[in-house]
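#onboarding

Welcome to the new folks! Below is a worked example of what a typical request in this channel looks like: someone posts a single protein sequence, and someone else replies with the predicted structure as tokens. Don't worry about understanding the tokens yet, we'll cover that in week two.

Example request:
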Amino acid sequence: KLRIKGTVQGVGFRPFVFVLAKSEGLTGTVLNDGRGVEAVVEGPSEALERFRTRLLKELPPLASIESVEAEDIPVEGRQDFVILESRSNSVSTVIPADAAVCEACLKELTDKNNRRYRYPFINCTHCGPRYSIIETMPYDRAGTSMKGFRMCPECRREYQDVEDRRFHAQPIGCPSCGPSVKVLFSDGSELGFGHGFDTPAAQVAWVLADGLIVALLGVGGFQLLADASSEAAVRRLRRLKERDAKPFAVMVPDVAAAERLCRLSEEERRLLASPAAPIVLARGGKDVDLAPSVCMFSRFVGIMLPSSPLHALLMDVWGKPLVVTSGNLSGEPLCISVEEGLEKLGHVADVFLVHDRPVVRPVDDSVVRVTDGRAMMVRRARGYAPRPVWRTSAAAPDVLALGAGLKNTICWLKRGVAVMSQHLGDLSSAASLNAFERTVEALGRTLDAVPQVIAVDVHPDGPTFALGRRLARKWNATVVPVQHHQAHVLACAVENETPFPALGIAWDGTGFGTDGTVWGGEFFVLEEEGEPRRVARLRPFLLPGGDEAVREPSRCACSLARQMGPWRTEGLDKRLERGMPVRKREVLEAMMARNIHCPATSSMGRLFDAVAFWCGFDGAAGCEGHAAMMLESWAAEASGEKMPGDAYEWVMHEEEGLLE
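Example response:
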């Protein structure tokens, strides 16, 4: 008997086991249950050993095995190998992630003789929606949002044929029995066919070509689309979505088209074409056909390929770069239903491309960046979540970690397996807080998890702190506050399997420190026992106006210039005079002299903001990290030149037991 844990449900694993056992002449059974897959195989010892070896080496594309526990049991004397019905019990299995449309389905999508020709929801066990449609585990159709679509006889035959690519593909459907799409105006009325356009994709391409904005209901929620070559269309999208400066992602039909816009490494090509199909931040090329307002100040292009058959059909008609951005208003969660999309995005989009397959949870596009040949996760969502991120002893307490207020994700640790949610975003509005709480409950319900410990950000006024205390009363759990930057360095150490003792460095924007100040440039020693011990920091400086200094880099520059005193150069003084009105600077100086609304910080992020101001950044930041990203681009442009002058001299001293 084999107990197999990992990504083994919804990925064609049982038919894989079936075919493998048959090829080795073995008999037995295989089934899904709440813990993964259980296989019982009978036969000669040599054949059993070959079976176990091949089981690990010849996995289906989306499958991954975390562990295999083997147990010798008495022979049952079965004459055949069969796939049994799923067995429902306590859930601790891996929930499969959504996967981009595979090559086999893409081929059928464009085959005029195939019954799924141009069918926008084509899928098989190697691709298609998973996490975004799952309501309960184990992963069976009755526990997904496909339960309302009754299979036609032909789909039922494929679903039950163990040798078919769609054997137990839970989202299976076709034009006769599956979900369908339609195109709506922003008032909800349907856009009829005409003008020679015979498909919804052709209708939408016609609308985009006219410089208008389209809201598309994708796998995990709405996306807003615009012609990436039209400056007027992109600027209008920015204005209506209230997204002033943050760069937009761009979808192209294939890797060849991506290479016309970007300089791609081998790893970046691999990521683009992978089942996760993330947005890849790649170095932009010169003289590319993109409107200036797409990437704004960034030297990177967020490039992506079609991640669903609906995207593939649209790109087949459109054929050129397309802006694809999250279907939400600034600071709010993704819209996931047609009604919600029309209500909240009706003033943004001119036309809606929608479908009738319910989206169970919002799942945004993932974002990755390759650094030194290694893929670094910027935003972990579609294609990756909710794969486990860590494993420890099964005897560990069950933990719910609620994260922080910005770029939030939540994580459940159950029986030693850490399952992290999709990226949820900033918890800055009532709508985002409601979505955050729904995700906590929904993922916990799917995992059948009840925490013994709830970890929250230590900030007493933070959104996760309040929810953690409320949930702790509900579940009779212990609340453990975790300092923001200690969490950062511990996460890095665990992810990279770093042996202790180690030095952990957290260079960040802002976070509540244990001494009541705002941290952000901290050095910790990590040891086997106890929490990370802070041993050094950036020298603290004031933030005149608090959060206003985060939005206006000139305030940080004014504070640091004041702290420099006689070491300040004439050039920095002149830059301050040019970049800030005299009266405003006098007010800020008075605030700092009297320490009125001027919290102290050791934030490296705010230092980057100040240096960006001195190098030419003016005005308020249009998005988080705006000034720092400008500084990075300027530094990259200048890095090939011989820099005048000497390197900065670093001075370190000890202050209250810390190196500064």
